[in-house]
Amino acid sequence: MKNAAYFKGKKVVIAGFARSGLACANLLYSLGAAVSITDSKSDEPIRRTAASLASKDINIELGKHTKEFVLGNDILVISPGVPNEALPVVWAKGAGIPVISEIELAWMLCPATVIAITGTNGKTTVTTLIGRILEASGKNAFVCGNIGNPFSGEVEKMREEDFVSLEVSSFQLENIATFKPKVAVILNLSRNHLDRYKDMRVYLEAKKRIFMNQDNNDHLVLNSADSEISALAGLARSKVSYFSRQDGLDPNQSVVMEVGSILGIDKKIILRVFREFKGVEHRMELVTEINNVKFINDSKATTVDAAIWALNNSSPGVVLIAGGREKGNDYSLISGLVRQKVKRVIVIGEAKERIKDAFAGITAVEEALTLESAVEKAHAAALPGENVLFSPMCKSFDMFDNYEHRGMVFKKAALGLIKRKV
Length: 422
Description:
Low-confidence stretches: none
Distance between the termini: 54 Å
Shape: globular
Mean pLDDT: 92
Number of helices: 17
CATH class of the largest domain: Alpha Beta
Largest sheet: 6 strands, parallel
């Protein structure tokens, strides 16, 4: 690793004790830092995570943030879910304590070549495929981000000749300082995270940070079909190239083809990877088929655009399960597709009233208290040849730990229908 000695003896406090926070804690502890962790929650998953660190000399504050716990540290590392308005960030900045994100921490230590991917939709699939084409071409690749392990959880294993395919969110980019990927990709931009950003302009400003440290030795790949994204070329110091949908390829494959060209990977290898790729878990994942009704897990769909993509790739006769934590989505954008393809919507979670209002008079809508009961209602409504599609359009945190947990609950409920022979 680069700069490993930098953190030895440093007092570092981490805000947020989810997956990336735990990875940061373990990494910093191994580097000899004095580590503390603060999280405003104190639920059972958080307590289990804290228990996993019981053998290490790490200070942990759960269920609250206190100023005394933050002040006096040398660095504050924040997890993606922690906004800049959170008290630990406000206190740290007020005291002149540097605030960095998890990917900035990992980048400071990373010896490998980083390909970073951001955008509203498609990040997970593109990140996965880039990792696959690197591996297929004989290179050692780490796939990190909101899939697999956090960047900071893998960096200790990396060597200079390795590659990192890194999924990067706008949240993670807010507090970078030196993060500088060799290849940066911006896929698209659509209405999202307006519970965190006051408008789309601020959201775009966060995304743009992915290339702010690049120079003319680096590459920036932009979407030629998105005028707002392609216009960013004028702000870049890096070498800019564009992707557009190619014949026989979907948009995700088209951008991977462009990145593969930059990396010098043979087109035949890339096409073979595409043919063999079975998809990403929790993204249009066929779980099971019962009496000729398919159950499809699209828990990764946390935006309206992602659900639009799912419905565009579905036949009419869909029973749609949607809902979760509200994030400023405009559900009316999907009303045309709902009218064409959805026979019934079953809503769950905090956003259920807004979704009901958006689809009132367009199709039948009913509520379910739990995802399990929503699956049962959807199964009862679906006829042979139709699909039950779980494409939430919302965050998961009102009812679940994350989208993976939510997707696993859906899959368990669907598979449970078989066991009960419903």
